[in-house]
Design brief:
single chain; alpha+beta; seven-stranded antiparallel β-sheet
């Protein structure tokens, strides 16, 4: 059984209203951490930066504004549903990205085929690895 889903999408890093540039972003979903998705941003001149957050947040964010805390996701136009804004924040610093919704939906569809949304707990041995997965997510967030 395949244990992960990966995709690469191009996103716009919105530096200001006047300046943005396109960057590759790797999307990753793993059965060993079935509630989370990871986005690795490849910014020019910097080491890649990975953010982990709930898969359900990404699912909800393509259709309506959502998020609490460090990650907020919202469609740019709720009527068109063609692009989404992803805002990542650490303290007073934030980064804003714009991505097309179709590649995100294709990725999410593949994750759902691997582990249907709502069935994450059914994975064999998941309960024994929950604490490890939560520790890993918290360590990634505090390092980012």
């Amino acid at each position: 059984m395949r244990e992960s889903v990966q995709a690469e999408v191009m996103m716009s890093f919105l530096v200001s209203e006047e300046l943005s540039f396109r960057i590759p972003v790797e999307l990753r979903y793993e059965t060993r951490d079935p509630y989370a998705v990871r986005l690795t941003f490849h910014l020019p001149g910097d080491a890649p930066v990975t953010w982990a957050f709930g898969r359900e947040l990404l699912v909800d964010g393509v259709g309506r504004p959502c998020g609490d805390g460090d990650v907020h996701i919202a469609p740019t136009d709720p009527d068109l549903l063609d692009e989404v804004l992803i805002r990542l924040q650490v303290g007073g610093d934030q980064a804003l990205f714009r991505a097309g919704i179709p590649p995100l939906l294709a990725f999410l569809d593949r994750t759902d085929k691997l582990v249907p949304l709502g069935q994450e707990r059914a994975l064999a041995g998941f309960d024994t690895h929950l604490d490890e997965a939560l520790d890993r997510i918290l360590a990634e967030q505090s390092a980012g």
